[in-house]
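Possible race condition, two jobs.
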Amino acid sequence: MSFKVAVVGAGRMGKLHARVLSEMEQADLVCVVDVDLAAAQSLARQRKCLALASAEEAAGIVDAAVIATPTVQHVAAATPFVKAGKAVLIEKPFTDDLRSGRELIALAASTGASVQVGHTERFNAAFLAVRKYAIAPKFIEAHRISPFTFRSADVGVVLDMMIHDLDLVLLMAGGRCEEVQAVGINVIGRHEDICNARLTFDNGCVANVTASRLAIKTERKMRVFSEEAYVSVDYGKKVGIVVKKSANLDLLQMARRMDVDDIADLAGNMDYTKLIKVEQLEVDDSAEPLRRQAEAFARTVMLGEAPVVPAEAGLAAIQCADSILQAVRTHKWDGRGSAREGLNILAGGGS
């Protein structure tokens, strides 16, 4: 049993999706679609399938589609399939326009089409390991930095990179974001290349999220503080640790019984890290995140399972990103009385 699928977009991500789908027994990669027919033909030859220039034509011969076009084209590329009641998996970010995203969701509701968003970090083995713990975060700190790749130049670092962590933060925080503070700088072009945002939720959780595509190294890390545990995870290396309160009650009780001088003496004579009980995350890295995502999409198409990342979650991440970008645009660079605000601080000029 298999389902017929199209990949729309023959760029970097389209090539990755085409590879994964062509390797799956439950998927029949029927065609590659791209307005640049030569690009579609080149990829189609590699994957032994049809090459088309029209999403409308593809919608009539497949059961589902993966949309891997530039962000600004996501909704337009997905619409013919959704109109036909076909399931779609749309690469992150879901869209660059909130209104068109809502309209696509409404269309999907009317046709019965399933819309899933490609937030692959949900399928990262390290994140799956973290989710096994019942943790209610009170503070989340995320860093996602890398050198400039010259890909996704049509959007800034918030929609290009930070969007991954915004999706995870919204999922883990579990509340409604009430306040956003942010600062960003554009260096290469007109979009922000570096951004830091602080999100405050109605349930008391606070998240500090940083993204940069101008770093000299690549790093994807997150730290989660809660009343139950502390978690540190490296999504790139797929490793992490957990320090649970329940496993360290004896140490906490000992510290509470000691006075300041005793604690000072203990600190001077013993390695604290040897006292605490630290668990290594049990990470099952047997499958790449993109493969796990494709298999989840296959279950949605073939078995009717609910999408792991429904369109509403993708839209929520976009709404959060939009709030961050609005905060970036209104940030006062020289204090509240400053006339300088927004981007272009290093690139020259005003916002």
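Job #2 (started ~2 s after job #1):
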Amino acid sequence: MNATVNVLCYKSKVLSNGESPLMIRVSKSGKRTYKSIGISINPTHWDFDKNKPKRNCPDKEQIENLIIEKLKAFNQTILELNVTQKEYTSDSLINKVENPFTLKTVATVFQEQIKLLQTSQKLNSALLYKYAYKSLSNFNTHLNIYFSDIDIVWLKRYENWLRNKNLADNSIGILFRTLRAVYNTAIEQKCVNPQSYPFRNYKVSKLHQQTAKRALTKTDINTLINYKATTYREQFSIDLFTFSYLAGGINFVDIALLTNNNIANNQLVYTRKKTSKLIKLPIHPTAQSIIEKYSNPNNPYLFPILSSYHITEQQKANRVHKIISKTNECLKSIGEKLKLPIPLTTYVARHSFATVLKRSGVQTSIISESLGHSSEKVTQIYLDSFENSQLNKALDNLL
């Protein structure tokens, strides 16, 4: 049943100025709901038969225009609800028209998204959102502001603030893309008018610089592997780098999660956490020796990154974050000692795996030169379909 909407002078209510309010009346399914349109009129100036102001009504034209706009908004909303076959009541119709946006602060939407990511076990994304939330809070001193307060001037001030902290374009871009994602969520939730969206004119794409090559040559790799470690931490860091390099550029988090169940018929078989792709790789002899080196019957994991103590996803994420930070710090120091051409991190192993194979003549159909973003998924698809003989031949090129 369609609703009917009209405007009337509510003469049964007399205000202190002797006037009565003009009310929107919505009737649906036998129920009537009234809502003031924000103005009042002397009942003597209202034609109750035609439900409109009389000719002698002061501000007659302005009142009529307001009534027309109000009725237009209600009738348009009724049409949209009918077309989409959405149920509504007289109360919900008035609320939808009069309060189209449910205002939430930037802090509220950010915190809701962080909680949602945590619940979905997307802990790395949750950490990124927390990082952006903290950065924005430090810049603005608080985030108890509405999204409409974030305009181009505000964004430029934030960018300058970040640059004064010597952040690189890519680091600034990550923060801005996170903020943009939260702003888009706010628009979806109708927390802000889309017309306030500042990212139409402020282009986040400008905050991107070409990433420098992050791959070592085969000679550099062998120099690193042959480095004489002076501490357990140094040796462990080198072994993790080497294992990643020899095991298809496996990510640190996937290394941490490996157990004996991931080894079958001299193959490393695991599902990549980031892309959910099933990976199958022959185990290089040197990689096998590294596995055996850290084998511990009291630990279900292949490497002493995680242990049976780490039960929840949050505990695992915190532990992996801690160890990868220490490992990268150690690798950087070793790289400087060896005078390697690029800063050494665990991710360098991933790029080096692809680049060394490519330079050794391995077909692009077997392994792509880059393992980042768009090409990463392509690489995983190819890895899925490799024949063992192809992989064994390819892996021979690594050392």
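Strands lie at 4-9, 20-28, 31-41, 46-47, 52-53, 263-264, 267-271, 278-282.
Logs attached separately.
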